[in-house]
Design goal:
Layout: H1 16-53, H2 59-89
Helix pairs in contact: 1-2
């Protein structure tokens, strides 16, 4: 007795190709943030290890962090200058 509800025949189960496509999409989205997080944790662990082993050596990872921040700030300043120049010349935004 079905009480007026007849479910449709279930479709065929998903193939491995669909599973592979979902996994690729998942790693494409989550891969870069995960890599950044693991890299930051590794850099933090190396810094603490070097701090315990020989305190002046701990300046090496700190210098890498400062250099990275400087390069990001310099890149952002260059992009901002290029965008302002494009606006002043009436061109479309080169970055989107």
């Amino acid at each position: 007795m079905s009480y007026g509800y007849e479910p449709q025949d279930e479709s065929e189960a998903g193939s491995w190709r669909e599973v592979w496509a979902i996994l690729q999409a998942m790693f494409a989205v989550l891969g870069p943030p995960l890599a950044i997080f693991l890299g930051a944790m590794g850099l933090l662990m190396v810094t603490f290890y070097l701090l315990l082993a020989n305190p002046p050596l701990a300046l090496i990872p700190v210098a890498v962090i400062v250099l990275g921040a400087y390069l990001i700030a310099r890149r952002d300043k260059r992009i901002q200058a290029e965008r302002e120049q494009a606006i002043n010349e009436g061109r479309p935004d080169p970055y989107g």
